[in-house]
Amino acid sequence: MILESIVLASASPRRLELLRSLGLDVRVEPSGYDEPDDPSIAPANLAIRHAAAKARDVQARFPDDLVVAADTVVDIDGTALGKPRDRADAARMLRALSGRMHAVHTAYAIAFPGRRDLIQECSTTRVRFYPLADDEIEQYVATGEPMDKAGAYGIQGRAAALVESIDGDFYTVMGFPLARFVRALRRLGFALPAAKNKPNE
Q1: Catalytically annotated residue among 25, 64, 71, 86
Q2: What secondary structure letter does DSSP report for 197?
Q3: Which string of DSSP letters, residue by residue, matches 142-153?
Q4: Which residue ranges of the chain lie beneath pLDDT 50?
Q5: Considering only CA atoms, which of 185, 57, 167, 61 is closest in space to residue 121?
Q6: 71 an active-site residue?
Q7: Cβ-contact 58, 8 below 8 angstroms
Q8: Cβ contacts of residue 4 below 8 Å, gap of 6+?
Q9: Do the beta carbons of residue 31 and residue 108 sit within 8 Å?
């Protein structure tokens, strides 16, 4: 079965860009779920919980559509780092990540019309930052880029200059494990749309 369109339960421009790269018609319908912190839950499980809650929230409004939701949590020594509250919080997170290896967990959940159960999966990638000087952190925070991102950085943006190495899937760090999502669709019997030829090709 060809999957032509989906509903994305997220306002993330990065996830929208990635899903559109598959040739899908993506309708953006952000979830109203507020992603509460819960230190009693392991960071990877927290990402799964948030993704599932977002998917169910949007599925309730669009029960006839295939809904995809995702959540990213940065994990340093078992402590989850979500989106920073303010610039001072962003700088605190970046100082904690400086010169260290950390894990990035991105979970996704797929809700299908007429089904109560969700398809859920979590991908983990390990990232090492260079040691960061205070002025380097201040300059990055001043760009405003960290403010809407888990762990206060976006690897696809200026934070690429902070990253020494990654071990795993780049797109997991970017916010959506694209290849694993495609393989899940294949297991479920879905195929992606055929590539559209550009003019003059």
Answers
A1: 71
A2: P
A3: HTSGGGGSGGG-
A4: 197, 201
A5: 185
A6: yes
A7: no
A8: 24, 25, 193
A9: no
> What is the pLDDT at residue 196?
63
Q: What tokens does 74 get?
A: 């940065």
Q: Could you tell me the CA-to-CA distances from 31 to 7, 50, 52, 108 in Å, in that order?
A: 11, 10, 11, 14
Residue 13 neighbours by CB distance under 10 Å: 11
At 8, give phi and psi (nearest 5°).
-100, 120
Q: Which domains does the chain have, with CATH numbers?
A: 5-187 (3.90.950.10)
* Res 200: pLDDT: 53
Rounded CA separation 18/5 (Å): 14
Instruction: At 175, give phi and psi (nearest 5°).
Output: 130, 0
CA distances from 189 to 21, 37, 91, 111, 178 (A): 20, 35, 45, 15, 17
Beta strands 67-76 and 79-81: pairing type?
Answer: antiparallel
Tokens of 72: 């990213």
- Identity (one letter) of the amino acid at 191? A
Q: What is the structure's pLDDT at 201? A: 45
Residue recorded with tokens 């979970």: 107
Strands 118-129 and 163-167: antiparallel
- Cβ atoms of 80 and 103 closer than 8 Å: no
